[in-house]
Amino acid sequence: YSKGSIVRIKLKDFMTYTFVELRPGPSLNVVVGTNGSGKSSLVCAICLGLCGTPQMVGRASHVGDYIRNGAESALIEIELHNPNARNYVIERHIFPSKSAWKLNNIPVPQKAVEAAVAGLHIQVGNLCQFLPQDRVADFVKMSRQELLEGTEKAVGTRDGHLLHARLIQLQHRQAQLESGVQGQRERLDQERQKNAHLDEEVRKLQEHRDIRSRLDILRQKLAWLDYDSTRQAYEAEKNKLREEERTLKARLEEQDPLKQQLAKMAAHEEGLRRVDKSLKAEAAATLKKVENSLQKLAELSEQGGAVKRELERKIKDEATRRERISKCKADIEGFEKELGEAAAESIESKLQEVQSEMQRCNQTMNTISRARQMADVFFRERQRQSAALEEEMRRLKDQSNQRMEMLRRRSKDAFSATQWLLKNEGLFAGKIYPPIMTQVEVPDQRDAKYVEAQIPFRDMMAFVAEQPEDLSKFLGLVRDGQGLRINGVLVPAEPLDAFQPRLPLAQIGPLGFRGYIQSMLRAPDAVMRYLCKQYRVHDVPAGDERVESHLSQIKALGIRRFFTHNQVYTVKTSRYDSSRSSTMTTEIMQPSLLTVSVDLSSLNHLEQSRQALCEEMASKSAEIKELTVQERAASSKLEECRTAKKGLMAEAGRQKQLGLLLDQKRQALQSLQRQCLDLDRERAEAAKKQGSLCRTKMAQVAIYVKRLQACYESHRLCVDHRLEMVKVAADRKKLEDALQVALEAHQALENEVRARRESVLAAKREAQRKLRHAQEAIGCSTNISQIPPSVAREFLQLPKSVAEITQQVHAEEAKLSCMLPVDSAVEQEYHRRQQNITQLEGDLGSNEAQLAEVAEEMADISGRWLPDLERLLERINQGFQRFFQALGCAGQVSLYRGEKAHEYDQYGVNIRVKFRDNERLTELSAAHQSGGERSVATVVYMMALQELTSVPFRCVDEINQGMDSENERRIFEMIMNTALQNSAQYFLLTPKLLPDLPYAENVTMIFITKSENYIPDWKPESLVGRAVGLAALARRRQ
């Protein structure tokens, strides 16, 4: 082992591995395994375990995605060889959101592991050393520059890569400096030209300032004169305010007499209101007495009316009594006459005849009822038997429904198409069968796994048509018209008898076979013909565990495909050499579509039995209907007898009722005759009551008159008092009006005083504002209200009146307006640009010096780096050409220098290849070469690199994809010879091995196969000479 090579790899819960530990050899390690067995998972583990990133692998984007499904974390442990001391052991514990690292069983940060890996010259990110399966295409897509960088890192010296990086850095710095120097020179010229045009502008600016200074002093004196005028106006307003306040005080004193008179008037009105309240109470009392007298008179009138109404009621009652006596006598005569006409003897004899007829009808109905009961018992028994048959049929049909439900879950489009087909079968000339999974029956559920393993899922969901026209029409209506994704197949023309097994079952039975797939299923003839034609179910046998012990005999019989207990074997013969064959073994999956079986023969037998029961029930039902008609006729006759009996009994009852009514009428007549009234005596009593009521009413009328007079007098006094109150209220209103006039006059004057105060306050504020303005104009303190002496002396030299000062201000402003506008920023711009000119001159000198230093350093570094690089690429080119010549092709590796000189960031490796004699050398790219040719070039380039440097290990995952067998054989021999000559460890991953390949003694073969359980104690010698030994060992452990 060389330093840094991989001694041991252990994985736990990583991708497809629950647990695995392997120890690769020190030289070439050939890792062989079928697709999906976990070869690339091993490459991912090496990359991620040595500080690689998921992007380097080219698979999942997050490291947590590499944890096996169902596990909480994953472990990668890699042991690297250290010849001088203890081996390096790197552990990476992967969690969903983070990773934990250990180096020699000591927790360390990832940076420490990265430093240790880099110290061993391991570059998992360099495609020239580590090429995963998903990054093979990336290697070909690498640009010339990327390929050069990877080559320098892989086989160049560390100084060479650093010098190249420094050259690129200096190149960019040189470009920046050249651009900066050019820009600085242009800006310096521009600044100098601009300042040359500003000299005249600066002179005009000074003249403008002198005029502005004279205008400022004139405006200062004008501000003080304005303030003095405003102050005098303020004093005048303040004097007017004092005069108006004295007048307001005098008006307020004039209101006192009027207020005193109003107070006296209010006290007098209060006394009048108290008297008015007393008079109102007295008038209300007298009115209440008058109302009481009126109420008593009304009550007496009501009593007289009641006496009169009572007399009239008694007279009316007497007349009614006499009418009822007459009617009662008439009713008695009628009842006596009707009782005399009836004959009781005839009614009794008729009743006896009717009862005899009723007895005969009851006997007939009993006979019919017994016969019907027997028929009903027979019919119900047949109904029970029919219900049992229907329940059994429903149970069998429910299994068919389960098969349809499974179809709906697995393919909603196929289920929808089946429902449509069942409703529209009449549209087609021939028969179209629903999906095959609904038509195939497996009597023994243990055989369902063989049937499903032989018939693909796609055809299990296919519809089977007997005629091609029906198939085209059906697919057009369902797939094109409804957008359902379904598949349809056509029944072959051969009859079912044409499909016979090549070997009879009797010949292969002793080898462990118990039948062909056709014998393990039942289906309509059309469906069975398609399965025989397409999938040869008539010629594929299935057996038990004994088959595995007779594999050589089975192959000798030429059986291409057969099933054991849990495995399916497929034998393929080479198209080029019939003596060579390969056997592929696959574990049989548990059935998922044919787990529900429907017994169609039992269903048909049950249907026939149900039809026989229905016929018996129909015959017995007709008999029951006839008995029902007879029973209904006897019942109708019995009802007629009952009606006649009821009429006769009603007539007898009516005779008895008439006798009772006659007795009641006689008693009522006697009671009415005893209730006779004396109307003359009643009239005399009523007249006596009326006289007494009349006398009482006269006395009450006299009392009413006296009370009415007293009420009138009290109301008259109340009205007179009210008139006096109205007169007093009128006098009070006059006083209030006079006081209101005085108050309004006072309010108007008070408003004037308030307005005057506001005017005085405004004048004061204006004077203060102008004072501040004047103070600000001369720049003195706000505490000074007089002009400072120095300013006063300047003011003495100016005109004294406002008009003269204003005239002089206009004159100076006119001068200023005649001058062109001058921006005060021009002078600032002039001085600022002068400073910029000085700064630019210094910066330009400094950058020109730096540019010379960069050019000198680039020439020095290029002289050291470029010759070494050219020699390195020449050595790589020699090895590349030698390897390609061994393949019968041509190849060349050269240095690409870019389109311009000294563009070191464009330097790259140019690979040109030629695979055919009639071609010329072309650049390696996807546009010119096939995938297999690019793979050959990639491997050859990597082997050319190996001759020039020593790295701990190299890894290439399935680089032989797309190669033909001849190139694959040559590439493998090259890799093995290179690995023998070089001390580096090599990992070559491939899904298959070509036959008769030569192997050196130091080649380590690592086989990867699937197993559900870990095998801790397996023996490698048990695999020698057995093509399926590893699979058999895995089954024994299970």
From TrEMBL:
Coiled coil: 181-254, 280-410, 603-630, 662-689, 732-777
Annotated transmembrane regions: none
Annotated ranges, domain RecF/RecN/SMC N-terminal: 6-990
SUPFAM superfamilies: P-loop containing nucleoside triphosphate hydrolases (SSF52540)
Keyword annotations: Coiled coil
Molecular function as annotated in GO: single-stranded DNA binding
GO biological process: double-strand break repair via homologous recombination
Signal peptide: none
InterPro entries: P-loop_NTPase, RecF/RecN/SMC_N
GO cellular component, one term: nucleus
Pfam family, one: SMC_N
Family affiliation: Belongs to the SMC family. SMC5 subfamily.
Name by which UniProt lists this protein: Structural maintenance of chromosomes protein 5
